[in-house]
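Appendix B: complex inputs.
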Amino acid sequence: MESVPPTAGMIVIGDEILSGRTQDTNTHYLARFLGAFGIDLKEARVVPDVEAEIIAAVNALRSRYDYVFTTGGIGPTHDDITAGAIAHAFEVPIDYNAEALALLASRYKGGELNDMRKRMARIPAGATLIHNSVSAAPGFQIENVFVMAGVPLIMHAMLENIAPRLRRGKPVHTRTLSTAVAEGRIAASLAAIQAAHPSVSIGSYPYFNENGVGVNVVVRGRNPQDVEAATDRIQEALMAQEIGSKPDDR
Amino acid sequence: MESVPPTAGMIVIGDEILSGRTQDTNTHYLARFLGAFGIDLKEARVVPDVEAEIIAAVNALRSRYDYVFTTGGIGPTHDDITAGAIAHAFEVPIDYNAEALALLASRYKGGELNDMRKRMARIPAGATLIHNSVSAAPGFQIENVFVMAGVPLIMHAMLENIAPRLRRGKPVHTRTLSTAVAEGRIAASLAAIQAAHPSVSIGSYPYFNENGVGVNVVVRGRNPQDVEAATDRIQEALMAQEIGSKPDDR
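Resulting structure:
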């Protein structure tokens, strides 16, 4: 019997995402990163810089998924409230962490380690640090929750540090077929093939852009043979439709 | 007394976002769109193509915010399950909608309106259609929930159709100051200014990119005078720090 793949949830913390100031790219990066580990990202949430909202999201997701990843809110400024919120979510104290203080002290010399910067060393009790090669300030892991920076470059570096801690799942195999045949013409075939191949997931993604109209059909599954078999059947269905078809939408 | 600004939640529906295949841009677009209407986007969630997950997210958000927007899952293929899920969430029947069928019939001639395409005319009872100029298939509004396509071009067109239905809030004024001064050097000043100006929200967003290191300080608020006053104070604090400062991170 095969082991169940690990699951994950993502929490993006930051007013700047919800105000439209910043396009979140961390969720997409995490999804691809976890994909390479065979870990299924099941849900993502964007919450504002409001402690109660962070606590609610963390508690909802950490009981539900094997891993929870958060980004944002661990810097030195007043709007960086994630560490305190996580401590409250786990109902543990938070205080200056000696290892984190040492990291900051090695980075900020000669009085540069002011009180606000020291806030970045406040870590909930029982957490272990997440190091990164870009900035001195660490993230932290508490139980199954990984708390990371929001700056993409730092978040990426933190994921490298986290990687060895993650249980891997069987990888997902993906095949993509592109066609200019309208989605509505192949929909019945896709439904029949999906029904006949329940071990794979078939997604149909139309696009409308400056290059025209088309569909990407994506087959995903953990058994490579099943993915290939379903892909072959879809390819046959597409070829049958492409003969004499005309560009059309949906 | 001023009226309370309208609030909104966003639900992105689609396995392709969670698998890392597709970078969601609809949330960002919606955030900016709503910003222009003075509507506050309070939360966003990404859920998979799983009916129970869609229902849970819709019911959680529609009771909490003035408006809920969904994108994805209203096309003709087997993985397009949003309309049925919304009907279940509202506990109303779903059937072919005459107006939607007429739209599709005008687009798909001579037998092209097959059974799978007809699925795009299945609309929950009590909903009103959301038209768009790109494809024939409509979205729909049921109570305070707006159900839109996932394809960005279509989603954008649907928002144009929705716009007249939305109650506007007082607009948010935003001022952004950029500095190469390290975030940790200005953090104490920002905290003091935030405390002295509770009617505005001050965000501090460091960046680390190929151009170097810096911080964008963003002041947001519904009272322009308050935003200007806080911005002036931050500008003074930045100028005081910039004298003799050196590039540094966090």
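The longest strand of chain A covers residues 212-221.
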